[in-house]
Specification:
With about 200 residues, the protein is of the alpha+beta class. The protein has a domain at about 55-190: GSPII I/J protein-like (Pili subunits), CATH 3.10.610. About 30% of the residues lie in helices and about 30% in strands. The protein contains 1 helix and 10 strands. The chain has one helix at about 5-60; strands at about 60, 80, 90-95, 110-115, 120-125, 135-140, 145-150, 155, 170-180, 180-190. The strands form 2 sheets. Strands 1, 2, 3, 4, 5 and 6 form a 6-stranded antiparallel beta sheet that branches. Strand 4 (about 110-115) and strand 5 form a beta hairpin. It is elongated. The termini are far apart.
């Protein structure tokens, strides 16, 4: 019977070690890429979800003004870019809110978008007038800055005029500076606008 020599065994073990090391490296590379793809896909899903919710709210915008906790009426039904004064990035009343329990309440809802700790949050009131907010719903993280512009009678403006409660802008432009994607601009039509 003929066997393997020590040199042949060492050479076979060396080749097996090289193949194993290459296999481990390929598996590690594949797992790292899979994790990156999963994180990227999750981030895109977060972004698309926030955009879809904002688009749904803007497509149902109403000119109905609300009352605050103190009972005073708001000057406007639709406003934004007031985060410098502690106000919301965007505030509006939206129509078409579901009422699955058939409770005696309005199909209108007051909605605010705020930037808090680099996160875009959506808040809604329990009731339309004079009621507190539900806990905020975080939508999009990693935001360095956010600003709005409104298409008002064919021109882009940063602040809607006072007394603009009788009309809505034609569109909203949301400019975001994201930590991972840089500058992102979203243009969304306000479907309920009349002009």
């Amino acid at each position: 019977m003929k066997g393997f020599t020590l040199v042949e065994m060492m050479l076979a073990l060396f080749i097996f070690g090289l193949i194993s090391a290459a296999g481990v490296a390929v598996m590690r590379f594949s797992m790292d890429n899979q994790e990156r793809v999963r994180a990227h896909t999750g981030r895109l899903a977060e972004f698309q979800s926030a955009r879809a919710l904002l688009k749904a709210d803007l497509s149902q915008a109403s000119t109905r003004r609300t009352r605050g906790l103190d009972g005073r009426p708001e000057n406007r039904a639709f406003f934004g870019n007031e985060q410098a004064n502690g106000g919301p990035l965007l505030a509006l009343v939206r129509r078409g809110v579901n009422n699955p329990d058939s409770e005696p309440r309005s199909s209108l809802q007051y909605v605010e978008y705020r930037l808090a700790k680099n996160t875009l949050e959506r808040r809604v009131r329990v009731g339309l007038d004079g009621s507190p907010f539900y806990p905020p719903q975080p939508l999009l993280t990693g935001i360095r800055s956010a600003s709005l512009r409104f298409l008002w009678h064919g021109q882009w403006i940063e602040t809607l005029p006072l007394g603009a409660h009788v009309a809505l802008p034609q569109a909203v432009r949301l400019d975001l500076q994201l930590a991972d994607y840089g500058a992102v601009t979203q243009l969304i039509l306000v479907t309920g606008s009349e002009s």
